[in-house]
Amino acid sequence: MQSAISKIKHAKRIVVKVGTSTLTYSTGRINLRRIEQLSRALADLSHEGREIILVTSGAVGVGMSKLGLAERPKTTREKQAASAVGQSELMSIYGKLFGEYGCDVAQILLTKNVIEDEKRKNNAITTFNTLLEWGVIPIVNENDAISTEEIEFGDNDTLSAMVACLVQADLLIILSDIDGLYSADPHKSEDAKLIDEIDEITDDLFRIAGGAGSSRGTGGMSTKLIAAQRVMENGIPMIITNGQRPAVIYDVLDGKRVGTLFNGKRQEV
Ligand code: GLU
User: Fold this and answer.
1) Strands (E), the chain
2) DSSP 8-state secondary structure symbol assigned to residue 12
3) pTM for the full model?
4) Does the pLDDT value for residue 34 go beyond 50?
5) Can you give the pLDDT at residue 153?
6) Bridge pairing between strands 171-176 and 238-242
7) Is the alpha carbon torsion for 111, 114, 116, 121 positive or negative?
8) Can you tell me the distance from the alpha carbon of 29 to that of 34, in angstroms, rounded to the nearest whole number?
9) 26, 135, 140, 209: most buried, per Cβ within 10 A?
10) Is 30 left (phi over 0), alpha (psi -120 to 50) or beta?
11) Phi/psi of residue 50, nearest 5 degrees
12) CA 197, 221, 46: angle at the middle one, nearest 5?
């Protein structure tokens, strides 16, 4: 029986999710240094023979920055328009940086109704598999420009879990602006301790996680727990760790204890 750490070290197909607060400065402008480090690490893992899928937020955030909007748009119409401005900018930055490290990227924009429709879902799976076969890194976001409430995932934590299940990934890594899940809110309580490992998502964890996201992104800890629940049910382990230093991904794959590990349920069978 393979241990959780050994499974992670040998993970071949890896979904990495990065949020807006990791990709942008508090000024709202894009953090090029961080995106450069992230692209470099992921390109390197791809060269090593791993299959990497990046789920990125930032379309709305980068759009806001380009348009000079001080606050995240609240109406669907404004969110859609801002994302259309930001998404192309985001892809052009990723294309340039991954290209510098010898990797091709592809854009895949999803909506919930793609995943719910068997035929479209299978088409998406085939596209992912073909790109990965070619050594291309699929970069996924929600298709915010056309997403309305009925067809939207709403947050990229959920989207990344759906993608991990869709492509039957070996591991989901969520890069956040915090080290992992704490026993209490670390901004409020000095006694808050990082939880290393979680085998089961309980109501207690949801209570600890609270609701809040940042002003630039949408997710908080609770969307991450929902994501964890989904992948764990499918036997896929998930790690939440701090994306401030994107090279932390190497530590994860070296089997070092970083962040919070959510064990996939079917792992030990
Ligand atoms: N799809 C949104 C964007 O690109 C992000 C959603 C999220 O932050 O979870 O801005």
Assistant:
1) 13-18, 51-56, 105-110, 137-142, 171-176, 197-198, 238-242, 260-262
2) -
3) 0.93
4) yes
5) 83
6) parallel
7) negative
8) 12
9) 140
10) beta
11) -85, 155
12) 70
Give the tens place of pLDDT for each residue, 79-100: 999 999 999 999 999 999 999 9
Structure tokens at 258: 């970083």
Beta partners for residue 239, in sequence order: 173, 261
CB of residue 46 inside a 6 A radius of ligand 1: no
- How close is the Cα of 155 to the center of ligand 1, in Å? 6
Residue 132 has pLDDT above 90, yes or no: yes
**Distance (Å) from CA 142 to ligand 1 centroid:** 7
d(CA 54, CA 99): 15
Ligand 1 pocket check for 264: Cβ under 6 Å:
no
Given the structure tokens 């429709």, which residue do they identify?
A: 117
pLDDT category at 213 given cuts 50, 70, 90 is very low
Ligand 1, atom 6, lies closest to the CA of 155
Residue length, the chain?
269
Q: Are 262 and 202 contacting, i.e. CB atoms less than 8 angstroms apart?
A: no
A 10 A CB-CB count for 121 gives: 16
- Reported as a single tens digit per residue, the pLDDT across 150-188 is 778 889 999 999 999 999 999 999 999 999 999 888 778
Residue 262 CB-density burial (10 A; 0-12 exposed, 13-18 middle, 19+ buried):
buried
